[in-house]
Amino acid sequence: MNAAHANPTYDVICIGAGPTGLACAIEAKRAGLRPLVIDKGCLCNSLYHYPTNMVFFTTPERMEIGDLPMTTLGGKPTRAEALKYYRRAAEHYGIEVAQYQLVERVSGHDVTFVVAAREANGAPHEYHSRKLILATGYYDLPNFLNVPGEDLPHVSHYFTDPHPYWNKDVIVIGAKNSAAEAALDLFRGGARVTLIHRGAELGRSLKYWVRPDIENRIKAGEITARFNTKVVRFEPGKVIVQNGQHGSSAETLPAFHAFAMTGYHPDFQFLESAGIELDAKTRKPRVNLETLETNVPGIYVAGVLVGGLHTGEIFIENGRFHGRQIIAAIAGREGPREPAPVAPPGE
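The structure assignment produced for this chain is given below.
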């Protein structure tokens, strides 16, 4: 559902149209409120940019929102099945969604917030809302290696499809799920894959079906693994690496493409621009634990933003319930808010 061109005052504006933002809007709609969801990309933009062949590490019922059942062909949802489900959820509840509009700033205060957004063609939009929910996720901002050449065209922090890399030398940097799955997908797509990781072993949090697969491919020599190795710099068609051992010399590896799968982080600058206090170390926002309202009255956070830099603490499975907490608070169903515990930054 596209947002109306007129800009009336909404009860709730959710910034971020991922599963968590949609869940918040659905709860608002069910509570008799009028929500609007705004996203700088498409509906579920982060999920759309996940690897084409991705399978979620969960079961369908743990990804459901709005009490709508998710059906899948297998035991775990695929990227395509999830995208279809969330489209149907938005349609079922008639959620107004303003897609491809980048929120540039929020101003005003509780009950009279103003959200300024802009389309890619420069067209401005202004929306008014009583309450704001920030559910912007973290997938849009990669953790950079901060080495020379990282901005070269053959280096990227996202992997989608293995086909373009058939019969090519490809470097994958990292050792957690995204790196391991990319390496396996590329290998099966016919690429010559080298996995580089600064640590001594694969990540401990690998999915239970991914670990034996990647370990067996490495053991068989089908995927080359270089542990205790760091990237020194990127050059056109090359990746320069160095082993962690003292005195070791740099080595040049051929690279038609390099995927730096080094994780992502929330847009902390945007949170701070809205006046939200963040812990200096964990970057967790100051929130009321019962309502998820921040130190700025009327502004709430949902989803992975609640965890700050600890992005592994919150997933779709638990973030989808944040909407119930928030809307209960907005609708006044949680009772007196004064006694609710407040989490100091970092706790």
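Interim note for the steering committee: The CA atoms of residues 25 and 301 lie 13 Å apart. The longest helix spans residues 79-93.
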